[in-house]
Structures are given as C-alpha cells and as structure tokens.
Amino acid sequence: MFEPNRAEERGQVGIGTLIVFIAMVLVAAIAAGVLINTAGFLQTQAEATGEDSTQQVSDRLQVVSQSGYLSDPANGTVDHLTFVLARSPGADNIDLNTVSVEMTGTSGQETFDLSSNVTNVTIFTGGEDNVLTDASDRAEVSIALSDDNDVGVAPGEDLDYTLEEGDALTVTFTTQSGATMTTEIRIPSTVVDESVRL
Length: 198
Description:
Mean pLDDT: 81
CATH architecture of the largest domain: Sandwich
Number of strands: 12
Largest sheet: 6 strands, antiparallel
Order of helices and strands: HEEEEEEEEEEEE
Oligomer: single chain
Number of helices: 1
Distance between the termini: 115 Å
Shape: rod-shaped
C-alpha cells in the first residue's frame, strides 16, 4: 500500500503559514504608516491652532490715554479723538496699518482701518512704518470725526460722525491676528475747554 509523505505535508503547511505571516506584517506596516501620518498631521494642526489662539489672546493693543478735542467749546461737538496706543505685554510686533477700528455710539456704527484717510498715525518713540516693535513704543492715533478738525488729514476726509456733550462711544481696536481691545468714551455733559480727557 502507498503511504503519504508526512514531511511533504508539513512543508506545505509551513509555506502557507509563512504567506499568512508576511501578509499580516504587510497589513500591520501599512496601518502603522497611516497612523504615523495621521498623528503627524494632527500634531501640525494642533500647533497651528495653538499659535493662532495665542496670538488672538496676546497680540492686543493697549490704550495708554485717550482724549477728545472740540473746534468750538461753545457748540460742545467733539471734532476728533486722539488715542495713545502701545503693545500689550507679551504681544508680537503689531502693524497699525492692518488694525481695524469699530466705533459704536449715538450716531451709529463706523468701521475703518487705521490706514484709511480719516486717521493720522504717528509713532513718537522711534518705531518705523507704523509698526509697534518694542514694548516701549507708543503711537498717537488721531481720528477725524468731522471736517472742522486739526488732525492733519485732507479736507473733506472725515467720518462725518457727531459726538456731543453727554454722548457715549465704544471704540474697538482689532489687530490682524483677531485680538480685540475695547475702550469706552464718555463726553462730559459740560465741556469748557478745547480738549477733554475721556
């Protein structure tokens, strides 16, 4: 009688096991590659989100002082506002040309950039190109509310915005990174001088 060769059967089982093992290793390697790529992508995205969030919190402006000026104290109308601005602690360089301003008061809402024709920006501590680069930098920002002003803007370049005695105004400065700083202005009910600290 013919007897089957047991060694031959064992060899065939061994080759099958080896093929299954190689297939499992390949699948595991591909899965590991996908996981590593996904982890790298998520890490990059998390770092970018963290940087953006940090900038939105820290890259803010700070109002050092604010004042309003009247062309004629007799009529009690403020014709321009002046703010002295600085970088908040921990902020990176802030380009004032990219800062937007939103004013909300009794005469409505106005939105404009500090690079617009209704403003005059002067950095009086040595900064260049309207960029606050140092914590000690200070910028004077004048905003022309009406045509009768001494801001240094071209004639007719103003917001045509009325701000009178007793009025309140909210001014929000937003930097390029999205960080905001809001200040409130209240005009006294009686103004006797041409300039008033707000």
